[in-house]
Design goal:
392 residues, alpha/beta, Aspartate Aminotransferase, domain 1, 2 domains, 7-stranded mixed beta sheet, 3-stranded antiparallel beta sheet, 14% strand, binds glyoxylic acid, PyrdxlP-dep_Trfase_small
Length: 392
């Protein structure tokens, strides 16, 4: 034996219970955790297939779509972006990406890797796109694919109030509209069919309240036709929607093995979706928005300022707070975590060092948790400003 039995694995697993008030993952409701402890089944067992059908119906509901090519990919939300772009883009396709934070930047990077002829329209972090900027981009570049992030979790910005208009433009310019709703779904309205969105995806670990690991995704018939008529195969077998769609019985043909689905995560997502279905998607969105308003008021009372100035551009699920001048935000994070096991996050990408982020998602979007987070934040600010902070 060249490698001894590792001592670390001879101790019990240790996982603390934390309150995840960052940009995701959020805490799973007990019902989701319970579902994941149910027995593991095979990837083509009849019961697994029935649960896949239930999950598909739930995804169609939360996305408000009747698209038959609707399923959950075995990956994080970020993999949803990868799958959307790798399926749609063929080398040389024009791709326009709206960049106002890290997710737009990543989408542009990925689209280049798949051979897209990529252009961007850009806005500074903290701002959303006005319709004119979108129209100028579409007129100038005439892309085959237009990508927009509905919830920029790195900056706390939503594109929501422009979505319908953006869609109108897309129809005029005849391009496929891809919308990232990883951080926004369930907190911001989205009507996939009504707005004629061609590809939409999200992550299981935010408002849906399941652990990270599955990415709900849906393709319109137009997007499906583009994939079906590709001249080159999708570069990544794992993302190939024609194969995945067969496994998920999206084409009315018998299911064929593609990969071994993480069945315990599937149970968790099934229950996360069932909870949203029971509440109703509109009520779920209204709850997130009401919690966000309460958070904004409380932050103001604490003397803090929001990073996103335009009210209608604020993403209810992820609030970005300006780091006050001279404050070491890491001390706020440290205090909240050490004293209360409560996660408050720092910035990401263009907002690193500039903001703190508070997430309100799914099980954590309640008035009680907002109030508790504000209380902890108030104490943490005092701690960070006091000379004693080293003593914690
Ligand atoms: C992840 O989604 C993040 O915004 O940190």
């Amino acid at each position: 034996m060249q490698v001894d039995r590792p001592g670390v694995l001879q101790k019990p697993l240790s996982v603390p219970d934390k309150l995840l008030m960052g940009p995701g993952p959020s805490n799973c409701p007990p019902r989701v955790l319970h579902a994941m402890s149910l027995p593991v089944l095979g990837h083509l067992h009849q019961e697994t297939c029935s649960i896949m059908d239930e999950v598909k119906a739930g995804i169609q509901y939360v996305f408000q779509t009747k698209n038959s090519l609707t399923l959950a990919i075995s990956t994080s939300g970020h993999g949803g972006m990868e799958a959307a772009l790798s399926n749609l883009i063929e080398p040389g396709d024009g791709v326009l990406v709206a960049v106002n934070g890290i997710w737009g930047q990543r989408a542009a990077d990925m689209a280049r890797r798949y051979g897209g002829n990529v252009n961007t329209i850009e806005k500074p972090a903290g701002e959303n796109f006005c319709l004119n900027a979108v129209e100028r981009g579409l007129t100038q570049y005439r892309p085959a694919i237009f990508f927009v992030t509905q919830g920029e979790s790195s900056t706390g910005v939503t594109a929501q109030h422009h979505q319908e208009f953006i869609n109108e433009l897309d129809k005029m310019y005849n391009c496929l509209l891809v919308v990232d709703t990883v951080a926004s779904l369930g907190g911001v309205p989205v009507y996939t069919d009504q707005w004629e969105i061609d590809v939409i995806y999200t992550g299981s670990q935010k408002v849906l309240g399941a652990p990270p690991g599955l990415a709900p995704i849906s393709f319109s018939p137009r997007a499906e036709a583009k994939i079906a008529s590709r001249k080159t195969p999708v570069a990544v077998f794992y993302w190939d929607m024609m194969l995945l769609g067969t496994y998920w019985a999206c084409f009315g043909t018998p299911r064929i093995y593609h990969h071994t689905i993480p069945v315990s995560l599937l149970y968790g997502l099934r229950e996360g979706l069932a909870i949203v279905v029971e509440e109703g998607i509109n009520k779920c969105i209204a709850r997130h928005q009401a919690c966000a308003r309460r958070l904004y008021d409380g932050l103001e009372k604490l003397g803090l300022s929001l990073y996103v100035e335009k009210k209608e551009a604020r993403l209810p699920t992820v609030t970005t707070i300006k780091v006050p001048k001279g404050l070491d935000w890491r001390l706020v994070q440290e205090y909240s975590m050490k004293k209360y096991r409560l996660e408050i996050s720092g910035g990401l990408g263009p907002t690193v060092g500039k903001v703190m982020r508070v997430g309100l998602m799914g099980y954590n979007a309640t008035m009680e948790k907002v109030d508790f987070t504000l209380k902890v934040l108030g104490e943490a600010l005092e701690y960070a400003r006091s000379p004693q902070h080293a003593k914690l």
